[in-house]
Design a protein that fits this description.
The structure holds three protein chains of three kinds. Helices cover 76% and strands 1% of the residues of chain A. By secondary structure, chain A is an all-alpha fold. Chain A has one domain: MetI-like (MetI-like fold), CATH 1.10.3720. In chain A, strands 1-2 form a two-stranded antiparallel ribbon. By secondary structure, chain C is an all-alpha fold. Chains in contact: A-B, A-C, B-C. Chains A and C meet through helix 1, helix 3, helix 4, helix 5 and helix 6 of A and helix 1, helix 3, helix 4, helix 5 and helix 6 of C.
Chain lengths: 274, 355, 294
């Protein structure tokens, strides 16, 4: 018999190599971004920045255009997430807990925005929103963001409801809780960790949206991705990296924390989609 | 104390499937415990949900003390469910769980504290107010769930298999505790169970449910001794039913002639049943004995079980003593007249035996 | 009666979400088709015309000349990205078997998921560009002397940068899917198979693969659909020629020459159509494989 037949040395070495490659792929770009954002005058072929400074990053933060974009991004993503949760919660609940005729058809319709490219959605709605007078407004951008965000929120919440036991609600009702109390005192406390993560990912989908905002915002709604895309063609690496970091860091940190907390609480990772 | 009356209750879930409950009428006297006994799919849990008000019947009426409660929503019915899964809210402490029903009614802090203490004393778990549900054992969780249900002083207590996930020692003490508390408080109680022993041990009355129909509604003693129909007899553990021609106190079956207590029953086709522990094995022919072949003997600890072949029927007999006879000697099974009782054929056909 | 009320309740709960998604997608497709057929209120024309499609398929007109190369380039980039991502995720599944993935890897995968594509593309540019971090590493090791000697990995004619982007973004996504499947149902089957005498490779072949394949296939369809229709990444990491269909579509649509809008819209719809065809073919192929296996 071979000693430790499941882990021969060759396989262990391969596994280690795989982990290192994976780590390099996942962290390399982030490292490059961080180094560029926190240094200045960092020219080839220096491997490590000569000057470490947070000044460009702080300058970026102080720039009124950056601040305005940050505000627009927070506003659109926040409102979109709120509406998506309001629409998505009842839908995800019945999709997750009931079997009924037409369920798969509903899922198909909700899956549609994943197949129809956002380009086509944005170009089509561009004209409609122009007619409605909503083009170039936050309201218009929110409306269009709902197309990918609502299905996303529902699919994320579906997983939450799959692990949900309605028995707690029956129990609360027979104990004398009215429907409102059942929701506030029982369902919400049971659901909220999953709900928070679903909201976070839904927020992220809206927050990262470029094409839809561009096509419907018509250059008047300047969110962070719009600003960043414009900066990439002109700016220097330091300011680009700074802006990119500003855009990516808050949700990345929030999601990392949430995943940590959730994994600790339930022993299960949050599942998301790109 | 509340009297529950169910009249003509029908409930179906799927359009084309047979109803989960069909025309069930039943009354529960104030302060008594009624066990709803049946296999899974018999409709017993559905009945409980209808009484609790978390589901509504398609037809029929449910009344507490003569007043229909159908217009009353679940949260105002004061009919509390206790489930197999105790459903203690994991985000609340034991005390907060017990006080839940009082809190949603807007009770004062002092009332809640006093009531929590009183309830914990009642279920014999004093001093665990600050614990979390996850820190409790299965039996303790059920006791807390019971305390939480009783804290709102319900009119009706509805127990849905509350003991079935517990191991047998804990189950027995908890059964005794529930029965004691139920008697003390005089609370009208419905207990859903698939465990015959539990139903017989705890109930004032047992309602036997089978595929949505009410088969019998009797005291445990009567139901055990004289189940009224073949199906009821089967559910009470009677495996021997003999069909034959009844005439002059004798039942002519394909296996032989048996003297039975006809008690004025009309002559003609009849079915008589007998409990397995009421039959007896013998080495020599005697009155009411049928020749058999012993197929198998199983030692069950407190008894022996024999599988017998009589004609083309197989019989099961329970005995407290082993049957010691030479292997090739003739054997007989004795069916004493005083233990043979008539059963009706069921209106619904018995289910096909699983292959 | 109660049954009817329940059904009503179900559809009432679904209605708002379905209405918003259905109406917006429906309206966008309707307006899109109308625009692509030349029914453009802005231009004041109201004649139905298939000119936009004809020019594209014939390869004539400003955008049409690029159509077929762009289609080929888009398919190459998306199929390569999807295939490599799925392969990577499968390798991870095979390597992990029933051992749970550790928290650090899960955290890194989720962190990757949280990065917007736009930012990731910028970061990849800073890592892989000719004066990027990797090039500096090569210089420090004495492999190259000047930035120009470093291979062109981003903004290259073969779409390597775009593919590298999608693989490094979508492979983690597919890995998370695979890990979720393995976590929820992998271990018992694997133990049973081992108990029945299956060796490591047989377990991967007969237990792990069939378990993860349905979820992986669905995830891969999402990856293909996304990478085939996305604009930002090829716009940032691609070159002027060949362009992807998405870049061609958006740049035609926002062209100051309003007649180009019909072309852009037609391209958008063609992207959707090709996505449907490829995803459909993929599904049919997967089903055939399953039947062949059984």
């Amino acid at each position: 018999m071979m000693p430790d037949a499941t882990h021969p040395p060759a396989r262990r070495a391969a596994a280690l190599l795989g982990r290192m490659v994976l780590g390099a792929v996942l962290l390399g770009p982030i490292l490059a971004l961080l180094l560029h954002a926190s240094s200045t005058h960092w020219f080839f072929p220096r491997l490590v920045p000569a000057e470490w400074t947070l000044a460009p990053l702080l300058r970026q933060l102080g720039d009124p255009r950056t601040r305005a974009a940050l505000g627009a991004s927070l506003l659109t993503a926040g409102i979109t997430t709120g509406i998506a949760l309001l629409l998505g919660l009842p839908a995800a609940r019945v999709l997750g807990l009931r079997t009924f005729r037409g369920r798969s058809l509903v899922l198909l319709v909700l899956f549609l925005p994943n197949i129809v490219p956002p380009l086509a959605i944005g170009m089509g709605l561009n004209v409609l929103l122009l007619r409605l007078g909503l083009a170039g407004s936050i309201a218009g951008v929110v409306l269009v963001h709902l197309v990918p965000v609502v299905p996303y929120a529902i699919l994320a919440l579906l997983g939450v409801f799959a692990r949900y036991d309605e028995g707690y609600e029956l129990q609360a009702r027979t104990l004398g809780a009215n429907p409102c109390q059942v929701w506030l005192r029982v369902a919400l406390p049971l659901l909220w960790p999953g709900l928070a993560v679903a909201a976070l990912f839904a927020f992220l989908v809206s927050w990262s949206q470029y094409v839809l905002t561009l096509l419907v915002g018509g250059g008047q709604v300047i969110t962070l991705p719009i600003l960043l895309f414009a900066a990439v063609s002109g700016g220097n690496p330091t300011s680009i990296a700074g802006l990119a970091l500003l855009f990516a860091a808050p949700p990345a940190v929030a999601i990392a924390l949430a995943v940590r907390a959730l994994a600790a609480a339930a022993g299960q990772p949050a599942r998301g989609m790109s | 104390m509340t009297r529950i009356a169910l009249t003509g209750i029908t409930r179906s879930y799927l359009r084309r499937a047979p109803p989960a409950l069909a025309h069930v009428s039943l009354a529960v006297e104030p302060g008594t415990l009624l066990a709803l006994l049946g296999a899974s799919g018999s409709g017993k849990s559905t009945l409980l949900k209808l009484v609790a008000g978390v589901e509504a019947p398609d037809q029929g009426d449910i009344a507490f003390d003569g007043r229909s409660v159908l217009p009353v929503p679940a949260h105002r019915r004061r009919a509390v469910l206790v489930f197999q899964n105790a459903y203690l809210f994991p985000f609340l402490s034991v005390a907060e769980n017990i006080a839940f029903g009082l809190r949603v009614q807007g009770a004062s802090r002092a009332t809640m504290q006093a009531e929590v203490r009183r309830m914990l004393d009642l279920v014999e778990l004093p001093g665990i107010e600050r614990k979390r549900p996850a820190q409790l054992s299965g039996g303790e969780q059920q006791r807390v769930a019971l305390a939480r249900a009783l804290a709102i002083r319900p009119r009706v207590l509805l127990l849905d298999e509350p003991f079935s996930s517990l191991d047998s020692a804990v189950r027995h003490t908890l059964q005794e505790a529930v029965r004691r508390i139920q008697r003390e408080l005089g609370i009208t109680t419905l207990l859903v169970t698939h465990d015959r022993g539990e139903a017989l041990a705890m109930a004032d009355r047992v309602a036997l449910l089978d595929r949505g129909a009410l088969l019998a509604h009797e005291t445990p003693q009567r139901l055990f001794a004289r189940p009224p129909t073949r199906r009821a007899a089967h559910l009470m553990g009677v495996t021997t039913c003999l069909r034959g021609e009844l005439a002059g106190g004798q039942l002519r079956t394909s296996l032989g002639v048996l003297a039975v207590d006809a008690d004025g029953a009309p002559a003609g086709l009849a079915t008589y049943a007998i409990r397995p522990e009421h039959m007896r094995l013998a080495c020599a022919p005697e009155p009411n004995a049928l020749p058999v072949r012993v197929l198998a003997e199983t030692f069950r600890g407190e008894r022996y079980e024999y599988l017998l072949q009589a004609g083309d029927e197989t019989l099961r007999v329970h005995a407290f003593q082993p049957f010691t006879a030479p292997a090739d000697a003739p054997a007989y099974v004795v069916l004493p007249t005083e233990h043979l009782f008539p059963v009706c054929d069921d209106a619904v056909a018995p289910p096909a035996r699983p292959a | 009666m109660t049954r009817a009320r329940q059904t009503f309740g179900i559809w009432l709960a679904l209605a708002p979400a379905l209405a918003v998604v259905g109406l917006l997608v429906g309206a966008s497709l309707a307006y899109g088709v109308a625009q692509s057929l030349g029914l453009l209120a802005i231009l004041g024309t109201s004649q139905v015309s298939v000119a936009a499609y004809r020019d594209l398929l014939d390869g004539t007109g400003p955008a049409g000349r690029e159509f077929w190369p762009a289609l080929g380039f888009s398919l190459w980039v998306s199929l390569a990205s999807t295939g490599l991502s799925a392969l990577g995720a499968l390798l991870v599944a095979a390597a992990l078997g029933r051992r749970p993935a550790d928290g650090t890897i899960l955290l890194m995968l989720n962190l990757n998921l949280a990065f917007p594509h736009l930012v990731w593309a910028v970061a990849l540019g800073l890592l892989l560009g000719q004066s990027g971090l990797l090039a500096r590493l090569a210089a420090a090791l004495g492999l190259i002397d000047a930035p120009a000697e470093f291979p062109v990995l981003v903004r290259d004619r073969d779409g390597l940068g775009i593919i590298l982007h999608y693989v490094s973004k979508e492979m983690p996504f597919l890995m998370l899917i695979v890990l979720a499947v393995l976590r929820t149902q992998g271990t018992e089957y694997d133990l049973v198979a081992e108990n029945l005498g299956a060796d490591g490779w047989q377990r991967v072949r007969h237990i792990t693969l069939p378990l993860v394949l349905p979820a992986l296939a669905a995830g891969s369809a999402l990856v293909f659909a996304f990478s085939f229709g996305a604009y930002e990444v090829p716009a940032l990491l691609g070159v002027r020629y060949p362009r992807t269909l998405a870049v061609l579509a958006l740049e035609s649509f926002v062209n100051p020459d309003l007649r180009q809008r019909a072309t852009g819209m037609a391209l958008g719809l063609i992207i959707g159509l090709v996505t449907l065809v490829v995803v459909g073919l993929g599904r049919a192929w997967q089903r055939a494989e399953v039947r062949h296996d059984a």
